Description:
Layout (H helix, E strand, L loop, with lengths): L8 H10 L7 H16 L1 H6 L6 H18 L2 H5 L12
Amino acid sequence: MALDSSTTVTQAFAALNDNLDWVVDPAKARLWLEAALWLQANRADSTKQGVSLNWESLAEDIREARRYVRATTSNAVRKRSPFTRARPRTR
C-alpha cells in the first residue's frame, strides 16, 4: 500500500506492523521504511492522536532499514536513471 497525504496514522501503523519482519525480505523492508518515514514526517499529527513513539529509536531503525534496502538492491536498479535522455538516431 502506497502511503500518501490521505493516509491515516492508523493505516501507517498497520503498514509498519505488517512488515515487522523486514530484515528477511527487501520488499517488506521498503514497505516498512515507507511507513516509518510517513510517521516521522507526520510526527505532529501522530502526537495529536495520542501516538507515543520513541522517535530517536525510530530514526535509528530507519537508518538501519535504509542500509538494508541499499545493500539488497541490485546494482542494475541502483544505477538506473530516473529519466531517459533523448539521442538522435543515426543510420
